[in-house]
Structure prediction request, 349 residues.
Amino acid sequence: MGFFDSVGAVINEGASVLAAYGRVMKASASASGVIPTVAVVSGICGGTAAVWASMFDFVIAGGKDAHLYLAPGEEKKGIFAMQASDESDAFGKVASLLSLVPQNSVGGFEIAADDLNRTVVPVLTEGRCDNRALLSALADDGGYVELYPGDDAMITALVRIGGMGVGVMANDSSVNGGKITTRGARKAAKLISFCDSFGMPLVSLADADGLSADACPAVLSRLALAYLSSDNAKITVYTGHAVGAAFPLMGAKSCGADMVFATATATLSPMLPAGAVAFLWNDRVGKETREALEEAWQKEYAAPVHAAEIGEVDDVIDPAEIRQRICSALMMLAGKSAAAPRRHVNYAL
Prediction:
């Protein structure tokens, strides 16, 4: 834990105070990836202190007086994982967060009191699940902690499912069709890296119409690299659309997902049926209605059964079964190890 509320260094201490910053930053770096670290900024946190605070896994704003910046007037709001109303609320958020993560990188889990086999009732609109409501339905006792909330379509959260602390990244299709933005990619990459460091499973609820047109390719590549290089248990559920680059970026089998499920109404395709028909079948409009052509494209090229045929989807499921399937996959993958088993070679003839 770190608590930040200081106007800065005592200038006349010269190099001594700068060296002190170096020592505390080194201590924080030594703890990184070994134990979860949380910083609470309840007042001013500027300059080198802002760099130090940003080294923690999670930074919580401890009220309206929380200011994190490199130079006055250059506020760095995006660094806050959670916003508290005051210090007391901040301590409560710290407790909630720490209750969902392992005490150290060794990990471990408990069996949930909540029924592992209970069904869920997803909110469906034109074949797409409301992933925010679904997240609450999947969680043990309905509770989860959202990280880096904002106006983008990427939901990142910590939750307990079947007794396990789990990281969840999910697309909110009600925001610009769930398209992945620069900010959404950045916070998803942070979550993936944290989960990988502490052996926490990652669950992806994918429902995105591709990428935002102004998304930064370099940041999207960080999301891809974070997922591709992580060794933790990874489970993906295609709950709606997985169009274009959103298909691999949200956790495809080919990108290292251990278990992948899709609802029967999911759309898995390089393009949405409407765009594909306009691009490839527009000459057939008139002989057949556009609606019929789009339905035919969905059935012939975008239905999840085709992804299942090539091994990219393990099973096509009823949305009511999502919690059951995730719980069983989490139990199966609880002992996952990235290391190859020790091999003894017998050279005797």
